[in-house]
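WARN  no MSA supplied for this record, continuing single-sequence
INFO  ligand: BJW
INFO  echoing inputs
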Amino acid sequence: MQISANLKNRLKNADKIVFLTGAGISAESGIPTFRGENGLWKNFRPEELANFNAFIKNPDLVWEWYQYRREIVRKAKPNSAHLAITGFQKLFKDVTVITQNVDNLHTRAGNENVLELHGNIEKNYCIDCKQRYDFTDFSENKKGVPRCKKCGGIIRPDVVWFGESLPQDIFRKAENKTMQSEIFFVVGTSAVVYPAAGLAYLAKDYGSYVVEINIDTTDFSYSVADEVLLGKAGEVLPKILSLAETLRK
Ligand code: BJW
Ligand code: ZN
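INFO  complex generated
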């Protein structure tokens, strides 16, 4: 893996780093990505499951799909990419993790300053009275969508579906950290879902050095990335961390 003098220089001197992560960072934990050969959506169109209308039309189906994914997530463990980020957080002054993932693995790895743009699959709320419920409240209930204990409304996962707004306070924090960043790592995302993908362009506009880490090229590789490091996140990130440790001694 070739790392440029530019990136080495930033790794030596930077204080503020952002990681924008997507499903690819959790792939080595055994959590399927969305798109691509082995993706969750290989046999579905995303709109069939990941939007509110689909949920209202067939809440049991959508709920069961999330219960199935929760089982996978709960059995999964953070991998060396998530753990490397904890290492970056020890080495650099200000490290933020902006994630599109709902799997909670960053937090379980001990990452701090995690901004979840698309929610968290372990959480739920009632679509009518907004009462919040944990995953554990329903873990035994595998069949069909549960009902709110307060008002009888349908319970939905606390994730952001297509056509829904991202949590505004979290997105604003993500924009601020992005604009201040000196290195902006984009890890394991296909870069097609907005507004999350737009953050990489914002980073670049504000002078950050954009580094893409992915097993494959994406739209970013040919547009916004200053440097593309092809490889598995769980292999590439520990290498960059160890280089940064040497450079900052
Ligand atoms: C590895 C690896 C390894 C594998 N190491 N790498 C037209 C243009 C622009 C925007 C729009 C448009 N039409 C509509 C929109 C807006 C829409 C959008 O972006 N659509 C595009 C898809 C066209 N966006 C929205 O609707 C968002 N809201 C919004 O815009 O609000 C404003 C609004 C309000 C009202 C009306 C209209 C607008 C919301 C987006 C919500 C996305 N939600 C999901 C589901 C979450 C819940 C769940 O988990 O079920 O979030 S969709 C899904 O995609 C999920 C992900 O977070 C997101 C991104 O996917 P990600 O992470 O990139 O995964 P993959 O699978 O795509 O890629 C994996 C990558 O990893 C690949 O590149 C691999 O190569 C790589 N990889 N192994 C490193 N080991
Ligand atoms: Zn309710």
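Residues 32-75+122-159 form a domain with the SIR2/SIRT2 'Small Domain' fold (CATH 3.30.1600.10).
INFO  checksum written, moving to next record
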